Amino acid sequence: MKSILGIVAVLAVSAAAAVAQQSVDEEIAERIAPAGETCMKGEECAAAVAAAPEGASAGGRSGGDIYNASCQTCHAAGVAGAPKLGDAAAWAPRIAKGMDTLYTNAINGINAMPPKGLCMDCNDGEIKAAVDYMVDNSK
């Protein structure tokens, strides 16, 4: 009788350990799962994706919102030569090149600044709004 109870206890502990391990495995798989999927033009999944119109702000984020979320990391402290917000002398030569140049540089990157300042969830309209915000506050 004792040996049967011992076997049942071992089986119960083994089952609990297996369930716990499965839970851990699921948590690990969730943590290392890709953040998203790539959908190329012409694939079936691409038909379901509606592109945001140029100049539109996804989620209603303003230039100030984008600046505070992404741009201020470099532009508040002047990291790697980034012109500081409010520094009219640093911004003047850039503004003189025209807004289209500023937009292009912000979207595509320039010098130490990576494309979109690494705001990969920003659309071009939001980047332009952030540039407008920085220029308006740096004249």
Automatic annotation (TrEMBL):
Q: What is the lineage of its organism?
A: Bacteria, Pseudomonadati, Pseudomonadota, Gammaproteobacteria, Cellvibrionales
Domain of life, per lineage: Bacteria
Could you tell me what this protein is called? Cytochrome c5 family protein
Q: Which UniProt keywords apply?
A: Electron transport, Heme, Iron, Metal-binding, Signal, Transport
The record's listing under InterPro entries reads: Cyt_c-like_dom, Cyt_c-like_dom_sf, Cyt_CIE
Q: Name one Pfam family in it.
A: Cytochrome_CBB3
Signal peptide (residue range): 1-20
**Cytochrome c domain residues:** 58-138
Alphabetical list of PANTHER family matching this protein: CYTOCHROME C5, PTHR40942
